[in-house]
Amino acid sequence: MRNIYLDNAASTAMDERVIIEMMPYFRDEAGNPSSLHSNGKKAHEALEKARADIASCLNAEPDEIIFTSSGTESNNLATKGCAFANRKKGKHIIISQIEHECVTNSCTWLKEQGFDVTYLPVDSEGLINTGQLNDSIKPDTILVSIMHANNEIGVIEPVEAIGKICRERDIYFHTDACQSFGKIPFDVKKSNIDMATINAHKIYGPKGVGALYVRRGVNISAWQHGGGQESGIRSGTENVPGIVGFAKAAKLSIAEMFPEMNRLISLRDKIIDTILEQMPTAYLNGHRNIRIPNNVNIGFRDFEGQAPNLLTTLDAMGIAVSTGSACSSKKKSSHVLLAIGRNPVQAIGALRISMGRFTTESDVDYFLSVLPEVMKNMRSIFSRF
Ligand SMILES: Cc1ncc(COP(=O)(O)O)c(C=O)c1O
């Protein structure tokens, strides 16, 4: 049986070059970067080199990078840390309706602590309206958090325009770039971004490593207290092998970005065009072109609510796809699909196909040859009930 992995938005396999880079830091160079002996100094040097490398991938300064354990932690730190540090200035936060759960749930908690949250809607293609953002800003708005690319439908939000509005109105702008970093150009200075979340496991690096870019001068409180690592903003001994791997993965992704973008766009468009052409009940979720190169999200009008069964059937044939995001895969309806106007049954899940560095054209062709047959068989089974 073939093993075709089309769920790279959930996580990616590690690149061999990243594993090689990490290996020494598990054993031979296993010092604590805060220790003063030579082993510690070597670990510290590796940590600071990784920090400088990640910073250069974002067009940031090394001291603006705070290492964390994940994208989830970085998003918690950005929203909660910024809200609490600036609560004397105001209590209003704006996020989009399609943020990842680690932003929406952090904001639910912030509401319980007395903050006021506006959920900015998106249009039927998943894009926010910058005019509406401008109108939602209140005198006590302290933070806008809008993701760069959405994890379910792949839509790319206009971060440059958002950054301009926020800078002009003197409001902090945080963006969750977990799905875009290393895949499409991303420049924190050009887009006037104050805080940005990135992680390693979406770019062929290890799981459990993330970073938060915090522009110099941004007022943010620590969320995890201890020995004062990471400029006192995130205490805890740094995951040196993971961070070294993160930096290598980031550098590789940036160096190889443009040819890889073109390759993935052609695979993505092949999937979208073939499915829409051959399967008349299929529809695309998210903007046709303003989407990351590796994301396809398709619903089927005659098959609503059946996406989880379709996933299981494809899985049994050696093809891994998703019905939405990995974190919310057990949930009933997708808040992202509801936000773009799908009904609650449609929002139970669509088929998310996300390609990556190791996806070949032959993988895509096999998937496209199998899908119509699988759907035909499933339709005949369900029509019997
Ligand atoms: C857009 C987005 N934000 C945040 C996260 C959470 O990142 P992590 O898995 O590193 O906690 C993910 C990963 O699923 C994501 O896709």
Lay out the secondary structure.
Blueprint: E1 4-5, H1 16-22, H2 38-58, E2 65-68, H3 71-85, E3 92-96, H4 101-112, E4 116-120, H5 130-136, E5 141-145, H6 159-168, E6 172-176, E7 195-199, E8 210-214, H7 240-255, H8 257-278, E9 282-284, E10 295-300, H9 307-316, E11 319-320, H10 335-339, E12 351-354, H11 361-383
Parallel strand pairs: 1-11, 3-4, 3-5, 5-6, 6-7
Antiparallel strand pairs: 2-8, 7-8, 9-10, 10-12
Bound molecules: pyridoxal-5'-phosphate (PLP).
List the main descriptive attributes of the protein structure presented here.
385 residues; alpha/beta; Aspartate Aminotransferase, domain 2; 7-stranded mixed sheet; 11 helices; 38% helix; binds pyridoxal-5'-phosphate
What does this structure look like?
The chain has 385 residues and is an alpha/beta fold. It folds into two domains: 4-12 and 257-383, Aspartate Aminotransferase, domain 1, CATH 3.90.1150.10; 16-255, Type I PLP-dependent aspartate aminotransferase-like (Major domain) (Aspartate Aminotransferase, domain 2), CATH 3.40.640. It has eleven helices and twelve strands. Strand 5 (141-145), helix 6 (159-168) and strand 6 (172-176) form a beta-alpha-beta unit. The chain is globular. The mean pLDDT is 95. The structure holds pyridoxal-5'-phosphate. The site of pyridoxal-5'-phosphate has 16 residues, from helix 3.
